[in-house]
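Late entry, zinc ion complex.
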Amino acid sequence: MHKKIIWPDGKKFAFTVFDDTDLATLSNVGEVYSLLSDLGIKTTKSVWPIKGPRIPKLGGSTCEDPEYMRFLLDLQSKGFEIALHNVTYHSSEREDTVRGIEKFRQLFGHYPYSLANHADCEESIYWGNYRLTGINEWVYNLLLRFRHKGIFRGAVEGDKYFWGDVCRDKIKYVRNFVYKETNTLKACPFMPYHDPSRPYVNYWFASSEGPTVTQYNECLSEENMDSLECCGSDLIGHFCLA
Ligand SMILES: [Zn+2]
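Prediction complete; structure with ligand written out below:
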């Protein structure tokens, strides 16, 4: 049973968003963040610190865009958390990952507190079949016809994509599973948790899933919000925008 959380000011639950930066540009997210800021909802905005040299499957602005960077620093100054979504929108070998993480620190004054793996990056850490163990891993590989087996190698020592030691030394939290359940802590009551079989991640956290507007709005229905509010203070909503 999860220890009951006492939220500040007698609040009944907490709500936040981890925004994966896929496709984000100043023109399509600027107004969203203005609204969140006006409402006092200080969420987590992930970034890509460096501009990759290759054409991405899913692009978006990076910290190398000066106007976008000014927007990010303004968000940070208002209390939004800036987090990492890997260092850019496509795979990065170890040297580039290290460079991107140092660039993050240089730009924002600290190493990233949290990371969400980007699905198009082969250096994603404990991703694909590496998220699972034993029979679960076997079933995962079978369902995907082994297409993702061994793709994500950020934790595979000796591989050109390996950066597990850097992740362990510089980053505290990494997102793992996402759930349909609006009450994230009910779906994953032990988070944040350490998994000794995946030692390069200090703590894993979970999210409720909202990858599309429709799914996001369904998860945030008034009924679900009422349920969060009425069920007591040991609950949390934590959404991921993939
Ligand atoms: Zn992504």
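The chain has a mean pLDDT of 90. Will revisit in the morning.
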